[in-house]
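User: Can you recover a sequence for this backbone? Please restate the input before giving your answer.

Assistant: Of course. Working from this structure:
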C-alpha cells in the first residue's frame, strides 16, 4: 500500500508539474511613451511637443460579481515637463458640464480605450474621449461609447502633483458611474488605452529673447536622456470606497538637449 501510495503521489506531482509548464506565461502590463519632436527647451521656456501614451493590461480579468469597477486613470509626467498656463484659453468647467462643448483652442488631445465588457460582449468595446484644458487647473474629458450603451459623458479631472519621486505633475481623470457600469450588470475592465496630447501654443516675448517664441501650455524643458512616465488604470469596489487594484506600468521617452 505504501509503495502504491508513493507511486500515485509521484504520478500526481508529475502531472501537476507538466500542467504548470504547459500554461502560457502571463503577459505583464506595459506602457509606451513618445515625444514628437523630442528636443528640449530651456529652464523657463518649454519646447512644443506631441505626447503619445499607451497602456496595455492583457491579464485584467472581467469580474462578474460587480465588485471590481473602473475608478479612473492617472498619468504621471516627467519632472522635465514645464507648464506655462498663464495667458492660455481655458474651458469653463460649469459651461462644459452644461453644454458639453469647449473652445477649440483649449483642446489638449484625444484618447481611445478598449475594454472587456463581459461574456455577453465577446468583442472588445471602445470608448473615446476629447480632452481639454479647463479652468481652475482642471483637465476635462468628454467620453463617448456606442457599446454596450450609447453614452456621451462630460468628466472633470485634475492636473495635480504626482507626489512620486522621479515624476512631476499628474493628470487624473475619474470614471463616472455610468461609464463604470454602462448598463445593468456590465462592469468593463480595461485591456488597452492610447492617448495623444498636443498642448496648445502661443507666441510670446520672453526676457533674453530678441524674437517672440512659441510657448506651449506644456512642453519639454532642459532635458537629455530618459523622461519618466507612468500610466495607471484604477479599480474600486462596488461602493466606490476601497481601491482594489491598479493596473500600472512605467515607461520612458527620450529627450534631446
Amino acid at each position: 500500500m505504501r509503495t502504491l501510495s508513493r507511486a500515485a503521489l509521484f504520478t500526481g506531482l508529475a502531472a501537476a508539474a507538466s500542467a504548470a509548464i504547459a500554461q502560457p506565461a502571463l503577459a505583464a502590463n506595459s506602457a509606451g511613451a513618445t515625444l514628437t519632436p523630442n528636443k528640449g527647451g530651456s529652464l523657463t521656456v518649454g519646447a512644443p511637443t506631441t505626447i503619445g501614451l499607451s497602456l496595455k493590461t492583457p491579464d485584467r480579468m472581467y469580474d462578474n460579481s460587480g465588485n471590481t469597477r473602473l475608478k479612473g486613470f492617472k498619468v504621471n509626467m516627467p519632472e522635465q515637463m514645464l507648464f506655462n498656463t498663464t495667458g492660455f484659453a481655458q474651458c469653463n468647467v460649469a459651461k462644459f458640464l452644461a453644454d458639453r462643448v469647449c473652445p477649440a483652442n483649449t483642446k489638449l488631445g484625444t484618447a481611445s480605450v478598449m475594454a472587456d465588457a463581459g461574456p455577453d460582449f465577446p468583442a472588445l468595446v471602445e470608448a473615446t474621449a476629447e480632452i481639454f484644458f479647463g479652468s481652475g487647473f482642471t483637465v476635462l474629458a468628454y467620453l463617448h461609447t456606442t457599446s454596450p450603451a450609447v453614452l456621451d459623458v462630460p468628466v472633470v479631472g485634475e492636473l495635480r502633483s504626482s507626489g512620486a519621486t522621479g515624476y512631476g505633475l499628474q493628470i487624473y481623470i475619474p470614471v463616472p458611474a455610468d461609464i463604470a457600469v454602462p448598463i445593468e450588470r456590465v462592469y468593463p475592465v480595461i485591456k488597452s488605452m492610447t492617448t495623444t496630447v498636443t498642448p496648445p501654443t502661443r507666441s510670446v516675448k520672453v526676457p533674453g529673447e530678441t524674437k517672440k517664441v512659441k510657448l506651449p501650455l506644456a512642453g519639454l524643458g532642459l532635458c537629455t536622456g530618459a523622461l519618466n512616465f507612468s500610466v495607471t488604470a484604477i479599480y474600486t469596489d462596488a461602493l466606490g470606497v476601497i481601491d482594489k487594484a491598479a493596473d500600472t506600468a512605467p515607461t520612458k521617452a527620450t529627450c534631446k538637449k
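That completes the design. Residues 2-22 form the longest helix (21 residues).
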